[in-house]
Amino acid sequence: MTHAESIAATLQLGQRQVEKTIELLEQGCTVPFIARYRKEATGALNEVQIAAIRDLLSRLKELDKRRDAIVQSINEQGKMTPELQKALHEARSLTELEDLYMPYRPKRRTRATVAVERGLQPLADLLMRQQAGDVESMALKFINDEKGVGSVEEALAGARDIIAEQVNEDAPSRDRIRRLFRRTAQLTSKVVKGKEDEAGKFESWFDWKENAMRAPSHRILALLRGEEAGMLRVHAMPDDDTACIDTLCQRFVHGQNESSQQVAMAVKDGYKRLLAPSIETELFNTLKEKADKEAIRVFAENLRQLLLASPLGQKRTLAIDPGFRTGCKVVCLDAQDKLEHNETIYPFTSVREERAAINKLEALAEAFDIEAIAIGNGTAGRETEEVVKRCHFKKPVIAVMVNESGASIYSASEVARREFPDYDVTVRGAVSIGRRLMDPLSELVKIDPKSIGVGQYQHDVDQKMLQESLEDVVVSCVNSVGVELNTASRELLSYVSGIGPVLADKIVNYRNREGAFHNRRELLKVERLGAKAFEQCAGFLRVRESDNPLDRSAVHPERYEVVQQMAQSVGATVERLMAEKNLREKIDIRQFVSDECGLPTLQDIMKELEKPGLDPRAKFEVFEFDKNITRIEDLQPGMELPGIVTNITAFGAFVDLGVHQDGLVHISQMAHRRINDPSEVVHLHQHVRVKVLDVDLKRHRISLTMKF
Into which CATH architecture does domain 3-104 fall? Predict the structure, then answer.
């Protein structure tokens, strides 16, 4: 079976679709480019499907590498047989490959290898034949003091060690026990003796038990974290090992004589000492991989929603990074997010200073013609919001609380130092808060996604898998929105299809040296940006001041000629065609179908001509917390309050009520119907109404419900 056939069967896609997608990927095309501009080739596969093909292809190639290494190793040992060669070639998983390789894998010194060195392999072979006879008489022949076999029992014990290892290395046996474990293993945890007081946060798992394969991802990760911390003992084993031992005996025990009894003893020992711990480790790896995938899926979906949060847009913004003792850092940004002014106010040190702070904010709003105020939602955030509300501005100004997670990471980063070399971290942090309000995507791409604070057990999951998944999300979001070539930062440009950090630097350097780009084609003048990179990136870049109106849209330059033909067919210019709906309605796009440009692409073109460069993000809406609730102590069960969803996990959603401690809406409290995924009900940054169920002041926990 070819890779394309295997992937098509796994993903339930057409083989031709998969073959074409693989071909494009191997030509260096990116996932966003293929999804947007090669619909005819792939049968209009979306980004998720294309990424799945890419990932499965990578896994199959890794499997091929491992297969080749195993074949080479067995050949070098001179132990390859036609049957083994066929089995290795047909193996479709790494587990299957490793099971086949196990008897040939170079071993460390084991009880079985020691027994072989003592000359006990022939005795083990005799026992395995299970013919009638006196076992003691058989073993007497293998007593050899020089080799360390001093008694019949030592000889038999060594032979049983050899058989036990054979049981452990038998591929069919491993597969049968593996399947039994998957069906019946129980995930259990117990508190480590003497750690009861230290392990308080793991109290829920001090005596836990559930079916291992049905355990939810967040619980698996919680238990493994407890074990890693040395607070819990966690196992994944069947309650009763009888079924497993009986299964092995059916394969290896073929009689009722003394030899058969020795084999049965060896089987039981092989299961308990070797096979069960090995399969348990495998099962934990499977559970961990499943849990990682789910946690990463949740993190990735949260990140997508955060990056695609509604932008306020180009508004002159005053941003405040709140603080009690150290004061509030205030910055003023122009409509293009450039820093114009910064200073510090101290509204919480005295009544006099509060009045001075209000006067200063009013003066700054007038001096810089401020249209919006962004207030960080960290320490002193709600208190700062109250100060702002007491200001009397000469024109309407909206004030918005902004999630500042990761702003401190940005302010101390190399990116921030390069942007603001003459300012300290407090100024940079305030600027980041203001820019997040204006355009969350453009600002958040400057921060490692793992620092944004929308993950679940993010430090416990596979970091490589997490990084790749989050990278995919950022790339997808940036390219779905599109990027203005003449204003985008290095960081934003680096996520555009086909560009990356090196070319992003070269584009910015060219822009700084030569001035603004006049059109998309000018990109080809950038050093090292060749035809392939241009093909991949051009459709996702916008040049709003270009002399070619199509440069403001998502129409790819390779299709400009088709648009020209459309315009000519109705006796108009491209600009008129984009501006006048009645002209577009006269066009029959079927007349422009060709081998390279089919109906899906033509339909996309018509949508772009109608609304060129349309931002897919939702319209910005102002949100306000309940003005009477500012501290957790203000909350009472039964209160109905407005809130903002700040994080979504597998077990529920966290909601900011403006009291510096998010409340949890457990999945069971999210809807009157049963749901399996909280994202079925809410999305990140959604404005919701919740009711307070319980407030635990000691543990700083707030329980909420959406069922009322």
Answer: Orthogonal Bundle (1.10)
d(CA 379, CA 394): 29
- Per DSSP, what are the bridge partners of residue 209? 188
Q: What is the CATH number of domain 632-705?
A: 2.40.50.140
Amino acid present at 278: S
Cα 274 to Cα 179, 270, 285, 356, 476: the distances in Å are 17, 5, 17, 75, 46
Q: Is 622 a residue whose pLDDT tops 90?
A: no
Nearest to 373 by CA among 409, 416, 331: 331
Measured between alpha carbons, how far is 680 from 671 in angstroms, rounded to an integer?
10
317-438 placed in CATH 3.10.410.10: no
Per-residue pLDDT of 488-515, as tens digits, reads 999 999 999 999 999 999 999 999 999 9
- What digits encode the pLDDT tens for the residues 34-45? 999 999 999 999
Q: How far apart are CA 358 and CA 142, in angstroms?
A: 96
Query: What is the DSSP annotation of 564-629?
Result: HHHHHHTT--HHHHHH-HHHHHT--GGGG--SSS-HHHHHHHHHHHHSTT---SPPP------TT-
**Burial (0-12, 13-18, 19+ Cβ within 10 Å), 598:** middle
Q: pLDDT band for position 457 (50/70/90)?
A: confident
Cα distances from 377 to residues 149, 334, 402, 449, in angstroms, run 75, 22, 6, 19
| Alpha-carbon span 529 to 511, nearest angstrom | 14
pLDDT range class, residue 452, cuts 50, 70, 90: confident
Beta bridge partners of residue 186, listed in sequence order: 211, 237
Which pLDDT tens digit goes with each residue over 419-443? 999 999 999 999 999 999 999 999 9
**CB 100: neighbour CB atoms within 10 A?**
20
Residue length, the chain?
708
Residue-range domain boundaries for the chain: 3-104, 317-438, 503-610, 632-705
Q: What is d(CA 231, CA 190) in angstroms, rounded to the nearest whole number?
A: 9
> At CB < 8 A and 24+ separation, what contacts does 522-527 make?
523/485
For position 405, what pLDDT does the model report?
A: 84
Whether residue 200 has pLDDT greater than 80: yes
Residue 471 CA to residue 465 CA, distance in Å, equals 10
Q: How confident is the model at residue 448 (pLDDT cuts 50, 70, 90)?
A: confident
Average pLDDT over residues 217-246: 95
Which residues touch 50 (CB under 8 Å, ≥6 apart)? 21, 25, 31, 34, 35, 42
CB 271 within 8 A of CB 177: yes
CATH 1.10.150.310 is held by the domain 503-610: yes
